[in-house]
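Input (structure):
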């Protein structure tokens, strides 16, 4: 071989090696595509928040698993960010200083604790104010509210826009939170002034001017007044009531905080933050809602504390139930969602459009997962992308996680193109999964309006070999033209996810 050829080969090898080194050095990066994103100590919403990221921030990826990215934070530290809040790519350009925002198109739009009408209303918002968008889920949008909380609004009732400067959007969403029900809005700062309207617990109002006794607010474009004791201003402590509860109303149940703990206006993490209690502080407990406890603060207001955080002394069974929140029902529950098929296993194929079952099951699973994680449930996916997972691996995930519920999502096929409907399978005739299957089937038929093909015994591997309560859902038939169109419709998919979600909540109650 000639000297020139040797030189040419060496140049080519050096170029290839340089490219490989550069690619390795470049690594994987993610850019944050939401506002005020939590960075957690582990790959779960149950893990503690160790930091925050803003829209446009970028991080180098350490690894990824089950819908979460582990990212480098500097100084040898790392944290976890949910995959729905970032975009993966090479090293991005400079941070983007804008965010997506949403604005209500209607008066008093309900803001809920999750992406479903099943969730409690945590507040209402009015037209004219923009709120940073955190994520979107079919027909729902998650927005950032004042005082480090979030909520979900129906997409059909908001206007979405892009390119809003972050400082402006953040300033525009500064609102005071109403701390009581039926708060009178008056024309002047006097108890004898005419009443213009009323506010509900959790409502947000624009403050024009703060005062010791009265707060001037914007009410439907006009100046009005509300007693200052009924408003919680962002970043400020709750006001003290004029009168404190009588001493003879002391509770026999008390709690003591182990660590600094948030006290909220309602039984859930999406309710307004009233104050942060110090470690060692004690409060009388006056009621309960699922796993949340109602307490009386020193300023006379009632507040709610997550019941699994403090030490409690006394008999909780004697406390009045204030109504169970979804946070209380699903918090800490582990639910494994199994998107059927995947990878080279495409599953059923649509009769008219050729849509693959594997794609529809993944879409439906993602919608359901978003609804569940909003409540504090721990959701584990057997697959989060288009990969093949063996039947045994799916069962092993269920066993390893010791889950409370295993749900396998599918779409059906049949040689008869006229066959239409929904069915849900279980394995144990006398087990919990039979009851769960009945609840899911009832909700699916109600929400989708398809023929009820009933709950049935199914000798499927993921049911038969699974020691946890497990069901397999056949949502509809891809070999039926009408069913196929419904299966592809995002609105119908959300209805199906909502049906399963409601059934799971009902079962876990």
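Output (sequence):
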């Amino acid at each position: 071989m000639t000297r020139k050829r040797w030189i040419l080969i060496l140049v080519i090898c050096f170029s290839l090696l340089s490219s490989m080194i550069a690619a390795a050095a470049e690594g994987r990066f993610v850019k944050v595509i939401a506002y005020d994103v939590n960075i957690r100590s582990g790959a779960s919403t149950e893990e503690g928040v160790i930091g925050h990221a803003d829209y446009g921030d970028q991080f180098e990826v350490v690894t990824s698993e089950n819908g979460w990215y582990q990212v480098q934070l500097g100084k040898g530290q790392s944290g976890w960010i949910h995959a729905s809040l970032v975009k993966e790519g090479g090293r991005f350009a400079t941070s983007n200083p804008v965010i997506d925002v949403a604005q209500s198109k209607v008066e008093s739009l309900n803001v809920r604790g999750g992406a479903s009408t099943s969730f409690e209303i945590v507040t209402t918002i009015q037209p004219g104010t923009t709120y940073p968008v955190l994520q979107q889920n079919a027909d729902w949008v998650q927005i950032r509210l004042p005082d480090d909380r979030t909520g979900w609004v129906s997409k059909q009732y908001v206007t979405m826009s892009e390119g809003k400067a972050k400082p402006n959007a953040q300033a525009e969403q500064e609102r005071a939170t109403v701390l009581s029900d039926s708060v009178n809005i008056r024309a002047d700062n006097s108890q004898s002034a005419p009443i213009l309207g009323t506010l509900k617990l959790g409502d947000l109002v624009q403050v024009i001017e703060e005062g010791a006794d009265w707060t001037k607010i914007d009410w439907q474009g006009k100046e009005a007044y509300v007693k200052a004791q009924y408003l919680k201003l962002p970043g400020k402590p709750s006001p003290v009531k004029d009168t404190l509860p009588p001493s003879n109303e002391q509770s026999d149940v008390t709690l003591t905080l182990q660590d600094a703990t948030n006290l909220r206006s309602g039984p859930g993490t999406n309710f307004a933050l009233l104050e942060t209690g110090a470690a060692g502080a004690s409060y009388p407990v006056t009621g309960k809602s699922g796993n949340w406890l109602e307490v009386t603060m020193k300023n006379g207001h009632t507040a709610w504390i997550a019941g699994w955080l403090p030490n409690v002394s006394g008999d909780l069974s004697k406390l009045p139930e204030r109504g169970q929140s979804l946070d209380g029902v699903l918090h800490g529950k582990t639910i494994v969602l199994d998107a059927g098929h995947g990878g080279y296993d495409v599953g059923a194929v649509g009769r008219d459009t050729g849509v693959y079952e594997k794609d529809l099951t993944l879409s439906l699973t993602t919608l359901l997962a978003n609804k569940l994680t909003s409540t504090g449930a721990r959701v584990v996916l057997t697959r989060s992308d288009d990969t093949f997972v063996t039947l045994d691996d799916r069962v092993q995930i269920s066993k390893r996680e010791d889950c409370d519920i295993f749900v396998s999502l599918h779409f059906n096929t049949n040689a008869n193109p006229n066959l239409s409907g929904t069915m849900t399978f279980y394995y144990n005739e006398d087990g919990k999964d039979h009851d769960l299957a009945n609840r899911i089937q009832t909700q699916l038929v109600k929400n989708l309006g398809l023929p009820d093909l009933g709950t049935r015994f199914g000798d499927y591997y993921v049911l038969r070999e699974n020691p946890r309560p497990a069901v397999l859902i056949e949502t509809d038939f891809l070999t039926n033209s009408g069913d196929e169109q419904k299966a592809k419709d995002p609105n119908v998919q959300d209805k199906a996810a909502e049906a399963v979600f409601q059934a799971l909540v009902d079962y876990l109650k």
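Notes: Residues 435 and 507 are 8 Å apart (CA to CA). The chain has five domains: 26-95, 98-172, 176-232, 247-322, 332-508.
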